[in-house]
Amino acid sequence: MAISITRKDVAAIMDKAASVYTEFKYNQCMADLRNVHKNAFDYVEATGPHKWSRVHCRQRRYMVMTINVTECINSCLKFARQLPMLTLAEFIRNMLQRWFHDRHLVAQSMHH
């Protein structure tokens, strides 16, 4: 019995590979893609995962490439969750302040 693979199936696997946060899940998605459509796998590998996958991104993307803000914040707070409540609140305040400051500097440099 042959299984029919559609473009939607391939696109769904590629979309999932692009959006996962861990190397393990990315590798699972890519193995699935290689199994169902070798040409698509070869194409995206040749393109370079750092250009399209979240887990291989070399830049800080903050929430720009994230649809689910909760996932982004959880990812940033992975190690800080162990802190006492007040220390965690201070960590979050510092993190957000740093983000806004960095963005402000980038915005200022564009005007000069």
Total strand count, please?
0
Q: What is the average per-residue confidence, as pLDDT, rounded to a whole number?
A: 83
Q: Structural class, from helix and strand content?
A: mainly alpha
For the biggest sheet, the summary is:
none
Low-confidence stretches: none
Order of helices and strands: HHHHH
User: Please, how many helices?
Assistant: 5
Condensed summary:
With 112 residues, the protein is mainly α. The protein is built from 5 helices and no strands.
Description:
The chain is mainly alpha-helical and 112 residues long. The protein has a domain of 58 residues. The protein is 63% helix and 0% strand. It contains 5 helices and no strands. α1 runs antiparallel to α2.
